[in-house]
């Protein structure tokens, strides 16, 4: 995990027991990540660290919202985000610097653990797979109505009618069909 600054948890000097850390995420945080699906957002990150003797167990609770594009109308929308997860931090000079999503290996207890990458990945994983605007109290989609008109799904009878109209307008296609018959 690379160092992004501002999201460090000191390993050195932590006594046995539980320790609490809090971080705030904003739009600047997301801009640090290239090609991020999220460019704006805000979240509160609470971390409970427990010194285990063999390392740290970090329990994360993330609550906030992230701006994503609606899958239906392609307009920006705020999507609530919630995440609960645990990251184990272990000491190993042989595997130092490795991170598999569940465990981060550090070289010594003198290090500081930067959890920015983990927080970013957790927020992205906390987003639903399908991201669409909801509906208002009357059941009308909150999506951009102009975009909905452009992407309107055509029913099979409408598609057949449109295909027939296109054939009538394309004399070359009609001629080719007559030759093939």
Summarize the structure.
By secondary structure, the chain is α+β, with helices and mostly antiparallel strands.
Q: Could you characterize what this model shows?
A:
- With 181 residues, the chain is an alpha+beta fold.
- The chain is 25% helix and 34% strand.
- It contains 5 helices and 7 strands; from the N terminus they run ββαβββββαααα.
- A 5-stranded mixed sheet has the order 2-3-4-5-6. It has a two-stranded antiparallel sheet with strand order 1-7.
- Strand 4 (55-69) and strand 5 (76-91) form a beta hairpin.
- The radius of gyration is 26 Å and the shape is elongated.
- It starts with 7 loop residues before the first strand and ends with a helix.
- 18% of the residues are buried.
- The mean pLDDT is 82.
| Rg for CA atoms | 26 Å
Please count the beta strands (DSSP E, at least 2 residues each): 7
Main beta-sheet strand count, sense and barrel state: 5 strands, mixed
Oligomeric state of shown chains? single chain
User: What percent of residues are in strands?
Assistant: 25-35%
What's the helical proportion of residues?
A: 25-40%
Structural class: alpha+beta
Q: Which spans have pLDDT < 50 for at least 5 consecutive residues?
A: none
Cross-sheet strand order for the largest sheet: 2-3-4-5-6
Shape: elongated
The pLDDT mean sits at: 82
- How far the N terminus sits from the C terminus, by CA atoms, comes to 66 Å
Order of helices and strands: EEHEEEEEHHHH
List the total number of helices.
Answer: 5
